[in-house]
Amino acid sequence: MKSLPYTDEDDAENPDTFTPLSAAQARSLRELNPSVPPWKVVVGQAVVGVVVALVAWLVTGSQNVGWSAAYGALTVVLPAALFARGLTGRFASLNAATAMFGFFLWEMVKLALTVAMLIAAPSWVEALSWPALLVGLVLTMKVYWVALLFAPRYKQRKIG
After folding, report:
1. Which residues constitute the domain of residue 52?
2. With contact defined as beta carbons under 8 Å apart, do 122 and 11 qualify?
3. Which of 63, 69, 82, 83 lies at a CB distance of 3.0 to 4.6 Å from 132, suitable for a disulfide?
4. pTM of the full predicted structure?
5. In this predicted model, what pLDDT tens digit does every residue of 145-156 receive, in sequence order?
Protein backbone atom coordinates (compact mmCIF):
# COMPACT_ATOMS: atom_id res chain seq x y z
CA MET A 1 0.00 0.00 0.00
CA LYS A 2 1.38 3.35 -1.03
CA SER A 3 1.40 6.09 1.60
CA LEU A 4 0.68 9.68 0.78
CA PRO A 5 3.27 12.37 1.48
CA TYR A 6 2.70 14.73 4.36
CA THR A 7 1.20 18.06 3.42
CA ASP A 8 2.59 19.89 6.43
CA GLU A 9 6.25 20.17 7.42
CA ASP A 10 5.33 19.82 11.10
CA ASP A 11 3.55 16.52 10.35
CA ALA A 12 6.55 15.28 8.38
CA GLU A 13 8.92 15.96 11.29
CA ASN A 14 6.67 14.43 14.00
CA PRO A 15 4.42 11.80 12.40
CA ASP A 16 3.46 10.21 15.75
CA THR A 17 2.54 13.44 17.52
CA PHE A 18 -1.12 13.76 18.42
CA THR A 19 -2.63 16.74 20.16
CA PRO A 20 -6.17 16.33 21.50
CA LEU A 21 -8.70 19.08 20.96
CA SER A 22 -9.62 21.43 23.76
CA ALA A 23 -13.27 21.69 24.80
CA ALA A 24 -13.64 24.93 22.84
CA GLN A 25 -12.04 23.42 19.73
CA ALA A 26 -14.28 20.35 19.93
CA ARG A 27 -17.37 22.54 20.34
CA SER A 28 -16.30 24.63 17.34
CA LEU A 29 -15.75 21.49 15.26
CA ARG A 30 -19.23 20.19 16.16
CA GLU A 31 -20.75 23.55 15.21
CA LEU A 32 -18.99 23.45 11.84
CA ASN A 33 -20.10 19.85 11.16
CA PRO A 34 -23.59 19.35 12.64
CA SER A 35 -25.16 15.88 12.60
CA VAL A 36 -28.73 14.76 11.99
CA PRO A 37 -30.49 13.97 15.28
CA PRO A 38 -31.74 10.36 15.27
CA TRP A 39 -35.17 11.36 16.58
CA LYS A 40 -35.77 13.59 13.55
CA VAL A 41 -35.12 10.59 11.32
CA VAL A 42 -37.55 8.44 13.35
CA VAL A 43 -40.25 11.13 13.15
CA GLY A 44 -39.65 11.42 9.41
CA GLN A 45 -40.01 7.67 9.05
CA ALA A 46 -43.26 7.69 11.00
CA VAL A 47 -44.68 10.46 8.81
CA VAL A 48 -43.68 8.63 5.62
CA GLY A 49 -45.16 5.41 7.00
CA VAL A 50 -48.53 7.05 7.68
CA VAL A 51 -48.57 8.66 4.23
CA VAL A 52 -47.66 5.37 2.49
CA ALA A 53 -50.37 3.49 4.41
CA LEU A 54 -53.03 6.10 3.56
CA VAL A 55 -52.01 6.21 -0.10
CA ALA A 56 -52.04 2.39 -0.31
CA TRP A 57 -55.52 2.31 1.23
CA LEU A 58 -56.87 5.08 -1.02
CA VAL A 59 -55.33 3.72 -4.24
CA THR A 60 -56.48 0.13 -3.73
CA GLY A 61 -59.64 0.81 -1.76
CA SER A 62 -58.69 -2.08 0.52
CA GLN A 63 -58.22 -1.59 4.24
CA ASN A 64 -56.07 -4.74 4.40
CA VAL A 65 -53.58 -3.27 1.94
CA GLY A 66 -53.42 -0.08 4.01
CA TRP A 67 -52.84 -2.03 7.21
CA SER A 68 -50.19 -4.16 5.50
CA ALA A 69 -48.31 -1.06 4.33
CA ALA A 70 -48.65 0.47 7.81
CA TYR A 71 -47.25 -2.68 9.39
CA GLY A 72 -44.35 -2.62 6.91
CA ALA A 73 -43.60 0.94 7.99
CA LEU A 74 -43.92 -0.05 11.63
CA THR A 75 -41.28 -2.78 11.15
CA VAL A 76 -38.86 0.06 10.39
CA VAL A 77 -40.08 2.79 12.75
CA LEU A 78 -40.37 0.77 15.97
CA PRO A 79 -36.86 -0.78 15.80
CA ALA A 80 -35.41 2.59 14.71
CA ALA A 81 -37.02 4.29 17.71
CA LEU A 82 -35.58 1.64 20.03
CA PHE A 83 -32.17 2.08 18.39
CA ALA A 84 -32.34 5.88 18.75
CA ARG A 85 -33.35 5.52 22.41
CA GLY A 86 -30.40 3.22 23.03
CA LEU A 87 -27.94 5.56 21.31
CA THR A 88 -29.16 8.66 23.11
CA GLY A 89 -29.31 7.08 26.56
CA ARG A 90 -27.05 8.23 29.36
CA PHE A 91 -24.71 5.21 29.14
CA ALA A 92 -24.21 5.53 25.38
CA SER A 93 -21.56 8.25 25.61
CA LEU A 94 -19.56 7.43 28.73
CA ASN A 95 -16.47 6.70 26.66
CA ALA A 96 -15.53 5.56 23.14
CA ALA A 97 -15.62 1.85 23.97
CA THR A 98 -19.07 2.11 25.57
CA ALA A 99 -20.36 4.11 22.61
CA MET A 100 -19.05 1.55 20.12
CA PHE A 101 -20.41 -1.40 22.11
CA GLY A 102 -23.77 0.37 22.52
CA PHE A 103 -23.99 1.07 18.81
CA PHE A 104 -23.41 -2.57 17.88
CA LEU A 105 -25.68 -3.86 20.63
CA TRP A 106 -28.60 -1.62 19.68
CA GLU A 107 -28.05 -2.32 15.98
CA MET A 108 -28.36 -6.06 16.69
CA VAL A 109 -31.49 -5.45 18.79
CA LYS A 110 -32.92 -3.39 15.91
CA LEU A 111 -32.22 -6.14 13.37
CA ALA A 112 -33.60 -8.89 15.61
CA LEU A 113 -36.80 -6.92 16.30
CA THR A 114 -37.27 -6.21 12.59
CA VAL A 115 -36.90 -9.91 11.69
CA ALA A 116 -39.23 -10.93 14.54
CA MET A 117 -41.86 -8.44 13.40
CA LEU A 118 -41.64 -9.69 9.81
CA ILE A 119 -42.00 -13.31 10.98
CA ALA A 120 -45.02 -12.35 13.11
CA ALA A 121 -46.67 -10.32 10.35
CA PRO A 122 -49.00 -13.05 9.03
CA SER A 123 -50.45 -13.68 12.48
CA TRP A 124 -50.79 -9.98 13.42
CA VAL A 125 -52.20 -8.53 10.18
CA GLU A 126 -55.42 -10.04 8.87
CA ALA A 127 -55.34 -10.79 5.10
CA LEU A 128 -51.73 -9.61 4.88
CA SER A 129 -50.56 -8.24 1.54
CA TRP A 130 -46.83 -8.92 1.32
CA PRO A 131 -46.27 -6.53 -1.61
CA ALA A 132 -47.92 -3.68 0.33
CA LEU A 133 -45.92 -4.58 3.45
CA LEU A 134 -42.68 -4.51 1.46
CA VAL A 135 -43.57 -1.18 -0.19
CA GLY A 136 -44.26 0.33 3.24
CA LEU A 137 -41.02 -1.13 4.61
CA VAL A 138 -38.80 -0.01 1.72
CA LEU A 139 -40.21 3.52 1.41
CA THR A 140 -39.92 4.04 5.15
CA MET A 141 -36.32 2.81 5.13
CA LYS A 142 -35.46 5.30 2.38
CA VAL A 143 -36.00 8.14 4.86
CA TYR A 144 -32.40 7.50 6.03
CA TRP A 145 -31.19 8.65 2.61
CA VAL A 146 -33.58 11.59 2.47
CA ALA A 147 -32.34 12.65 5.91
CA LEU A 148 -28.81 12.80 4.50
CA LEU A 149 -30.01 15.11 1.73
CA PHE A 150 -31.58 17.47 4.27
CA ALA A 151 -28.73 17.20 6.78
CA PRO A 152 -27.16 20.45 7.93
CA ARG A 153 -24.31 21.32 5.62
CA TYR A 154 -20.73 22.16 6.47
CA LYS A 155 -20.59 25.80 7.55
CA GLN A 156 -17.96 27.91 5.88
CA ARG A 157 -15.75 29.98 8.12
CA LYS A 158 -15.91 33.69 7.42
CA ILE A 159 -12.47 35.14 6.90
CA GLY A 160 -11.85 38.72 7.84
Report:
1. 39-149
2. no
3. 69
4. 0.74
5. 887 777 666 555
